[in-house]
């Protein structure tokens, strides 16, 4: 299991984190305090320092808040501040779900590589994943790995998704108790802020197919290599191709163009979510172009669903946020008028 920090987050530091709300400022101080108190350090000097400072010995922090508030930035900043003096690992929760070894074996493997694990985007979309996550977190605690985790959902909110939150909530609230602190990180989505618009290289054209296709044609012609797929074709490839192999195929050209995006099911949402996550964190991602009849915010809106589908739709808001970081959204009313042919 690769526990290295993704290249996209290598520039993240506490200094470069700019809080825009009181909650974000408090979260930044909490993560810095967690790093400074070094609860994993059992040296007598550190123990005396912690007692003098009146600090509580914590096993971890759980950063929770909406998308785009800088939770991952804060985790990456902690990683940068500690590693390699204190070995750190960084992994997405989905990677834990994909492991075939037992939770105990996974925990031992992680413990061999790091003292602190940064677990990004804790999310649960089915009871099997819930059980695996809880067992893995318990196993990590048993082998002495400290945890810095992020999530868009508070533990008690899982009850609303009918996923079966009892074990997860019990673990966070009772098993860790005072040693596992819940830290809110509230605020607006920075990826939608005008200040980050200049970092966007791709475009999502929204409007009638003939109009958006014209823009897509022109954009693809500006690149040496382009992979152009309909959304239906991309969906089919995601079903028939292993995820890692699919990502390798998608990042190979200079630009990736996906036409006529339309999500018909939770399966569609999850497949696009995984692809966008991979493109967002990849160090050599292509320029991304998309076309659709509706803007990304309307592709899979949470208010349209209930139960498990609503939980997935809420998770899809992160995908929309990341699409805003990768692309500008341009509304196109109609295609350019065709020039009349000259009569001989």
Offer a concise description of the structure.
One of its GO terms (cellular component) is cytoplasm. The protein has 344 residues and is of the alpha/beta class. It folds into two domains: 7-184, Rossmann fold, CATH 3.40.50.300; 190-331, P-loop containing nucleotide triphosphate hydrolases (Rossmann fold, 3-Layer(aba) Sandwich), CATH 3.40.50.
Describe the structure.
The chain has 344 residues and is of the alpha/beta class. The C terminus is likely disordered. It has a five-stranded parallel sheet with strand order 2-3-4-1-5. It has a five-stranded parallel sheet with strand order 7-8-9-6-10. It has twelve helices and ten strands. Helix 11 links the parallel strand 8 and strand 9. The radius of gyration is 22 Å and the shape is globular. It is 43% helix and 15% strand.
Give, in spatial order, the strands making up the sheet with the most strands.
2-3-4-1-5
Number of strands: 10
CATH architecture of the largest domain: 3-Layer(aba) Sandwich
Q: Looking at this structure, what is the CATH superfamily of the largest domain?
A: P-loop containing nucleotide triphosphate hydrolases
Q: pLDDT average, as an integer?
A: 84
> pLDDT under 50 segments (min length 5)?
44-50, 159-165, 339-344
Any idea how many domains? Answer: 2
Beta percentage is 15-25%
The Rg value, from CA coordinates, equals: 22 Å
N- to C-terminal distance:
69 Å
The amount of helix comes to 40-55%
Structural class: alpha/beta
How is the main sheet built?
5 strands, parallel
What's the level 1 CATH class of the largest domain?
Alpha Beta
CATH third-tier fold name of the largest domain: Rossmann fold
Q: What is the H/E string? A: HHEHEHHEHEHEEHEHHEHEHE
Gross morphology is globular
